[in-house]
Amino acid sequence: MFEPSVHVNAWPLPFAVTLGLVIAALVYLRGCLRLRDVFPNLISTWRLAAFMGGLFSVWTATASPLATLDHRSLTIHMVKHLLLMTVAAPLILAGAPVLPLLCGLSRRFNQSDMVITSLRARWLERRLAHPVFCWLAGTATVIGWHLPIAFQLALRSHWAHSAEDVSFLFAGLLFWWPVMQTLPSETRSPQWFVPLYLFLATLPCDILSAFLAFCNRVIYPAYLSTTQIFDLSPLEDQQCAGALMWVWVTFAYLIPAVVITMQILSPRSACSHEAVDASWQGIAASSQNASRTEVL
Q1: pTM score, whole prediction
Q2: What's the mean pLDDT in 42-68?
Q3: In angstroms, rounded to a whole number, what is the distance separating the alpha carbons of residues 181 and 192?
Q4: pLDDT per residue over 76-98, tens digit each?
Q5: In this structure, are residues 24 and 104 in contact, taking their beta carbons and an 8 Å threshold?
Q6: Cα–Cα distance measured from residue 149 to residue 156, given in angstroms and rounded to the nearest whole number
């Protein structure tokens, strides 16, 4: 009899994830404190809270007691995916993490011009931040890991299971990058495309969730041989997971689309956008000059 993910809890992944997240939180906090000495209004309290909330969401999905139950319920497995991709990723990006994390690292690393001005880094940023690539990365991750062969592999192997979690988080970061627009960029696309971008992203998820909810057969045989933690049959659990994904994704994508549409229609949006870009570019230049001064 197949026993999915029996050994996932036997290795020290939760401790490693928790330690890594704590270190990231401390580095970010250190960077915020350094930046506030020079730019008091740069990193607001809500950005700090958003970043910490994003890290806590990652911990909940990968290292908390909830993470140990996904092999017994497809609904909980779905909650993990949604937490990583639609909660943790946008919250982390909302914290504007790049500059605080860089400032929170050692001064020796911070003084390197390669971090900000490297041509290779700029080229990579332009490619990774392209909306088409970000959309495809998010969609391919969602559909690919829900294919039965990939899903079953993740339940059998803790390495595949970890790769699944990591890919959902990174795909979420890529997907939300054009929406959150955390960093100013010379190639930044106009905001008008974002509502369409989010609307189109709901379509593959709607198809997948509808298939899970209405196919009338258990897609993942692993759940036929496990004891359900809820008073649901494996088919009912699958239908619940499909319905959850359908409703959650609809709200998670369409609410930001409506908010951004209202911002686009606001006559002050263009001016405020230019002001934000100019302020961030000025901050980046000031950081570079300070680094050069310290070196000298």
Answers
A1: 0.79
A2: 89
A3: 13
A4: 999 999 999 999 999 999 988 88
A5: no
A6: 11
Range from 14-23, 111-120, 256-265 carrying the lowest mean pLDDT: 111-120
User: Cα angle at 223 between 82 and 250, to 5 degrees?
Assistant: 25
- 124 vs 34, which has greater pLDDT? 34
3-state secondary structure the chain: CCCCCCCHHHCCHHHHHHHHHHHHHHHHHHHHHHHHHHCCCCCCHHHHHHHHHHHHHHHHHHCCHHHHHCCCCHHHHHHHHHHHHHHHHHHHHHCCCHHHHHHHCCHHHHCCCHHHHCHHHHHHHHHHCCHHHHHHHHHHHHHHHCCHHHHHHHHHCHHHHHHHHHHHHHHHHHHHHHHHCCCCCCCCCCCCHHHHHHHHHHHHHHHHHHHHHHCCCCCCHHHHHCCCCCCCCHHHHHHHHHHHHHHHHHHHHHHHHHHHHHHHHCCCHHHHHHHHHHHHHHHHHHHHHHHHHHHC
Gyration radius from the chain CA atoms:
21
Q: Report which residue type is found at 3.
A: E
Which pLDDT band, with edges at 50, 70 and 90, does 295 fall under?
very low
Q: Which amino acid appears at position 126 of this protein?
A: R
Comparing 37-41, 64-68, 114-118, which segment has the lowest mean pLDDT? 114-118
Interatomic CA distance for residues 288 and 116, integer angstroms: 8
End-to-end CA distance of the chain: 67
Q: Which two tokens stand for residue 279?
A: 């302020």
Rounded (10°) CA dihedral 167, 172, 174, 180: -160
d(CA 113, CA 186): 18
pLDDT bucket at 2, cuts 50 / 70 / 90 = very low
